[in-house]
TrEMBL record, chains A, B:
GO biological process: L-histidine biosynthetic process
Pfam assignment, any one: Histidinol_dh
Catalyses which reaction(s): L-histidinol + 2 NAD(+) + H2O = L-histidine + 2 NADH + 3 H(+)
Protein name, entry field: Histidinol dehydrogenase
UniProt-listed Enzyme Commission number(s): 1.1.1.23
Amino acid sequence: MVKVLHYPSAEADELLQKKSNDDDQVAGQVAEVIDKVRREGTAALFAYTKRFDGADVREDNFAISAEEIERAYGEVDATVLAALRRACENIRKFHEKQMRPSWIEPESDGTMLGQLIRPLDRVGIYVPGGLASYPSSVLMNAIPAQVAGVKSIVMATPPGKDGSINPYTLVAAAESGVTEIYRMGGAQAVAALAFGIGMEKVDKITGPGNIYVTLAKKQVYGTVDIDMLAGPSEILVIADDTASPAYVAADFLSQVEHDVRAAAILVTPSLELATAVQKEIETQMATLSRKDLMAQALRDNGAIIIVKDLEEACHVSNLYAPEHLEVLTAEPFSLLGKLTHAGAIFVGPYSPEPVGDYYAGPNHVLPTGGTARFYSPLNVDTFMKKTSVIAYSRERFYNTAEDIMALAKVEGLDAHANAIAVRLKK
Amino acid sequence: MVKVLHYPSAEADELLQKKSNDDDQVAGQVAEVIDKVRREGTAALFAYTKRFDGADVREDNFAISAEEIERAYGEVDATVLAALRRACENIRKFHEKQMRPSWIEPESDGTMLGQLIRPLDRVGIYVPGGLASYPSSVLMNAIPAQVAGVKSIVMATPPGKDGSINPYTLVAAAESGVTEIYRMGGAQAVAALAFGIGMEKVDKITGPGNIYVTLAKKQVYGTVDIDMLAGPSEILVIADDTASPAYVAADFLSQVEHDVRAAAILVTPSLELATAVQKEIETQMATLSRKDLMAQALRDNGAIIIVKDLEEACHVSNLYAPEHLEVLTAEPFSLLGKLTHAGAIFVGPYSPEPVGDYYAGPNHVLPTGGTARFYSPLNVDTFMKKTSVIAYSRERFYNTAEDIMALAKVEGLDAHANAIAVRLKK
C-alpha cells in the first residue's frame, strides 16, 4: 500500500525534503579508482573492468569495431529499429529548435560586440550497460551533441561478462552519430574519459549512471565539465477527480520499476482518487514482471499527499521540484505558469512519462533530487560554449577611456589604467 | 626578462599544458570548514570569520543594513559613481541580448512540445574583499542575474578587520540589483550560502575567489549549482609586426598585476616585436606600483612564443585556450573563426583587456586554466534553467503507441509499456 499523507504535516514535509547524494565511504573508493586509472593508465582500467564487470578487455578489443556494429544491425528486430529511427527523428527535430546563432553586432561608431556560440570539440557520453540495454539513453545523450556540431562523440558503456555490448545499444550509437565506443563502465570509465586513458581526453562527460559514476563525475568536475549529478528517478503526479485512476496507477508503476530507490508521489485534492489509485496499483502490479521491486519502492518512496486545492498542489510540487511532473487535471495548461521547478512537465492524459522517455523529442536526461531548482534537461547548450567578442573602435575608446581608468584606479590597479593611458599618448 | 620560446618545442608544449587546481591538502581543510559550518551553523561561521578575516561578526551585524549602503553613497567619488553607472548600463544592455524566450509549439494534430526558460529563485554571488575593492566583480555577477529575473540576489563578501565593507562594493551592489549582503568570505561563506546558514539557502553560487573559495564551490556542487571553477587569471596576445610593442607590454603588465600566479603569453611570428616588447615591459614596469609582484609573475608565467605564421599562432592559442585573448594583427577579424577556444577575444588595438574588465558590456567572469574548452563566460543562461513540456494529443498518442511500447520492451521495462497499453484500452 502507498501511504497517504495530508498537507501540511510533518510527514509530508519530511518526504518533500530531498536527501543528498553524499556518501563519504563510496566517495573514498571512487577517488582511489580515479587516482589509480590516472596514474597507471589502461592497465588499471582493464583490471577494474575485469573486477567489476567480469570481462576481459585489452588494448586490442577496448574499442568497438565497425564489424561489431555491422553484426549488431543483423541482430536487432526490424520493427524496433524502425521505431528507434522515428524516435531519433523526433529527438533531433526538438533539439534543433534549441540551437542559437552566434552574433556580432556592429554599432554606429565602429565598435562591435558579440557572442560566439560554438560546439565542444570532444565529449564523452556514459551509457549504463551490463545485462540491460538502454538504447534510449544513447539517443538522448548523443543526438543533442550531434545537433550542436560536436566532432567527436565518445561513448563508454560497461560490457557483459563475455565482453559483449547489447546490439540495440550499438545500433542506437550508430544511428545517433557516436564516433567512438569503448568497453568500460563505472568510475574507471569516467576517469579514462577525463584524463584520456586509452584514448584522447574529452572536454565534457554527460549521462546518468549509478552512485559510483555520479561521484566520479563530481570528482573530475573542473578537469572536464559535466552535465549534472543525477540521483534516483522520480515522478510527481498532480491530479484532480477528472483523472483516470488506472492512468495514475500505471504511471506510478512505470516509474518505480527502474529501481527500489525510485519515487512516485501523487498530489491531489481528491480522497476518492487516492483510494481508487491504490486499488488500481494492486490490480495492475499483479500483471507485471518486477512486482517485488515495485512493491518495495512504493512502500519506501511512494506517497499520496492530500492537499486542499490545485493551487496548493502546485506549491507542494514546487517544494519537491520533481524530475518528471505529470498534470492530469481538467485544465492542465492553466497550471503551467505556477509549476516553477520541474525537469519535464507531462501535460494531460495522453502524455504518460514513457512518451518522453523514448519518443516525443524532449530529453529524458533530467535533473533529480530537487535539483530541477537549478539544473536543466540535457540540451544543445550542454554541448556548446560561448566566447565573448570585444572590438572597440578608436572613437569609442577615446570617449570612454576616462571612465575605464577611474574604475581601474578605484580597484587599486594602476597597470590596468596604464593599459588605457598608453593608448592615449601620441 | 620574459623568456622567449620557439614553437614547436618541448618548453612551449610544457607551458601550454595547464596545471590542475587540485590540492588535496587544501581540499581537506576546506571540507572541514564546510562540515563545521553545516553542522554548527552561525556559531562556526562567525568563528571562522574572526579567525580568517579578524572581524567580529554577529547575528545583529551579519547582514548589511540599508543605512550602511546609504552611508556608502556619501563616501564614494561622484566621478567614479557616474562611470560605474555607465558601466552598469553597458553590461545590462549586452546581457539583455542573451535572453531567450520560452516556447511551446502547437502541431497540427494538437500535440504541443516546448521548452520553458525561467530564472532561478535565489542565487549567491561571491565577491572578494578584505582590503581591496572589486566593484566590477559585483556588477559582472549581479547584472546577469538581475537581467535573468532572479528574485533574490545574495552577495557574500569578506569584511575588513573592523567589520567594514568597501563603500564602492556596497554602492555597486545597490546599483546592480543585489537584494541581500552578508559579511562573510572564504569556504565558510560558500558553505553558508549552500546550506542556508544565517539565511535561506541559495540555488546557485557564482563568482571568482581564491583557492579556498574555488575548492569549496567544487565540494558543494550538486547541493547547489555553481558557475565554474576558476584559477589564476591569464592573457594570450596574438600579434604581428603591425602591433605596437607599447600596447602589448602594457597589456602584459595589466594582466600580471593581479597575482603572482597570473600568466601572460605573447604568440608572434615577429622576433623584432618580441625584442621590442621586452624592452617596453622594463620601461613601463618602472613607473608602476606593483613592480615586484609583476616581475615575479612575468618570470614565472610570462613567455613569448615565436611561431612561423599567424595560422600557427591560432593553433597555439587554441592549445592554451586562454581566458583573455587579444588579437593585435593587421587583419584581426580574419582570425576570429580559427580561434575556437577562448573566454573573451579582444580585437584590435583599442580593445585592451581593461575595456572588457570594467566597461564594454561582456562579462569579465571567464573560464581560466584551459577550461575555455568547455566553460563559457558568466551569462544570463547561468541564472536560468529549462523545463521541457510534453503534451501529446490523443491522435498522436494512438499513432505512436506501438513504437513506444516496442522501445520500452526492448529495454525490458514492461511497466513502461503498461503505461501506454492501459491508455489504449476501452
